[in-house]
Write a structure and sequence with these properties.
Layout lengths: L7 H11 L5 E6 L6 H9 L4 E6 L9 H15 L10 H11 L6 E6 L1 H4 L6 H11 L7 E7 L2 H9 L8 E6 L5 H4 L12 H11 L3 H4 L8 H9 L5 H14 L3 H10 L5 E2 H8 L5 H12 L3 E7 L6 E10 L2 H18 L14 H14 L2 H7 L7 E9 L8 E9 L2 E13 L2 H12 L7 E12 L1 H6 L4 E4 L1 H4 L2
Parallel strand pairs: 1-4, 1-5, 2-3, 3-4, 11-12, 12-13
Antiparallel strand pairs: 6-8, 7-8, 9-10, 10-11
Helix pairs in contact: 4-6, 9-11, 9-16, 9-17, 12-13, 13-15
Length: 478
């Protein structure tokens, strides 16, 4: 793997900000290891100057003064200013402003900003004052507020009335689409079987920080064993680090929530029942934090006839492949790994592997909807709704679950997602039954879609039942 991979749209947007004559305040959010800092560093190569500051990770007893001391150290290393004691954040920001280069574009990154704020409940207020009185006066400055704790940025910056109208742009980084993931295999990509790539993506998703750990000279089984089932592997310890660094006080509740979602989506009522918790309060806050962080997705089912969402009819699902793989396979093996008793096991023989792989495949496809729209010829047409769909059983209708439903002005696309070695003719009967159960106006056309990886029975194409057959292997072939 060579160079920086992906994020072309974000890089173009940042390049436009660099052309501005005035100062810009920018936020950058996303889960741990998604590449936030790396993106800003890459974009800043086009600026004349770049300064970077990062907060100290949370730990018991950490103080505001320790964060200020770390800031002072970063400042002294990057500017002519000697390291001096800083007693408060207004003084720190004033000193930074005085050390900014007089000419040329400059990018200033405040990384893991929620950590910088530890111990000072007025940090956001001090930052707002510094922006208004100091940083906004410097032409060509881009101040980037970056962090894995998206809820802190939402509460203290984006939804803070003091910052209204001040943010020039918001970057919210999601996993890379499938076509960009293939680049992590570098020059060897074309020689690596798609089945091997799918196994790796089933564990990592499109998270750049995980895919960067890939050793391309080794197969998926070896890479997964090295990263997941070895005491020294990054993904062996990653789960606890995520919840300690991001969710802190709500870590225990957030852990239990994702555990309830491992086997598939659940409604708020089902999550509450599983945890024996009331719907509101801390449960709702924890669900919101997990969603903002990108670890779960709130699926708002829409009426295929009208497109209207049903406010109370939504489900939560894990939107992060690593979390599901960890909870299903790594966590139960942790004690054996620690004691040196773990024996290598072929992935396909792991408990419920096919079912979990189906869920992992769905997550990868839902993170790459633009690729689906392109293959359906919808890239330059209006898509009104898109997402999983579930229809409950009533006296007038039967239950129905659709992996992916897409609604346009002209038609409803019913997409079945299949991750199997061999896909037989029974898939036609499955989709035909789902379409028959759908409650739709007679004036609405239905287009059937099969998005798959694995070998198709030749009779499927010969049957001419599906309007679109999409082989997802094409996206990662490389």
């Amino acid at each position: 793997m060579d160079g920086f991979i992906g994020r072309q749209a974000e890089r173009r947007e940042f390049a436009e900000l660099l052309k501005k004559k005035t100062a810009s305040l920018v936020t950058c959010q996303g889960r741990r290891r998604i590449g936030k800092s790396r993106l800003i560093e890459e974009c800043a190569t086009d600026a004349a100057h770049f300064l970077s500051f990062i907060g100290l990770p949370p730990r018991e007893g950490i103080t505001r003064q320790e964060q200020l001391d770390a800031f002072a150290t970063h400042l002294a290393k990057q500017t002519p200013s000697p390291q001096v004691p800083l007693g408060d954040w207004p003084t720190a920001f004033q000193l930074l402003a005085s050390q900014l280069p007089a000419k040329g574009s400059v990018v200033v990154l405040f990384d893991e900003i929620s950590w910088m704020a530890i111990g000072d409940k007025d940090f956001a207020g001090h930052l707002k004052t510094a922006w208004d009185q100091l940083f906004s006066k410097r032409p060509g400055l881009i101040l980037v507020l970056c962090g894995s704790v998206s809820s802190w940025i939402e509460e203290n910056i984006l939804n803070n009335t003091g910052f209204v109208g001040r943010c020039s742009w918001q970057f919210h980084l999601k996993p890379l689409p499938l076509t960009e993931c293939a680049a992590f295999w570098g020059k060897r990509s074309a020689r690596v079987a798609t089945a091997e790539k799918w196994r790796m993506l089933a564990v990592t998703g499109g998270v750049p920080g995980y895919l960067e750990q890939l050793m391309t000279t080794r197969g998926a089984e070896e890479n997964i064993e090295r990263l997941c089932f070895n005491q020294g592997g990054m993904l062996f310890h990653e789960f606890e680090r995520i919840f300690h660094d991001i969710f802190t006080r709500r870590a225990a509740t957030c852990r239990e929530i994702v555990r309830t979602l491992v086997s598939g989506p659940k409604s708020l009522q089902q999550v509450g029942k599983a945890l024996q918790r009331e719907r509101g309060g801390s449960l709702g806050d924890s669900l919101a934090d997990l969603e903002l962080a990108g670890f779960i997705r709130k699926e708002r089912y829409f009426d295929p006839a009208t497109g209207k969402t049903r406010p109370r009819d939504h489900h939560y699902r894990i939107a992060d492949n690593y979390l599901r793989f960890y909870l299903k396979y790594i966590e139960p093996a942790k004690e054996r790994v620690t004691k040196g008793l773990y024996q290598r096991t072929p992935l396909e023989t792991l408990e419920a592997w096919d079912a979990i792989m189906g869920l992992q495949f769905e997550t990868l496809v839902l993170d790459s909807l633009d690729l689906v729209f392109d293959r359906l010829g919808l890239k330059n047409r209006t898509v009104l709704n898109a997402g999983p769909y579930a229809q409950g059983k009533t006296l007038r209708q039967q239950a129905c679950q659709i992996d992916l439903m897409i609604r346009t002005r002209q038609a409803i696309y019913v997409a079945e997602l299949k991750f199997r070695r061999h896909i037989g003719l029974e898939v036609i009967d499955e989709v035909r039954e789902k379409v028959a159960r759908l409650k739709l106006p007679k004036s609405q056309s239905v287009r059937t879609v099969l998005i798959h990886t694995g070998e198709l029975d030749p009779a499927i194409e010969a049957s001419d039942y599906f309007d679109h057959l999409i082989n997802a292997d094409d996206w990662i072939a490389g």
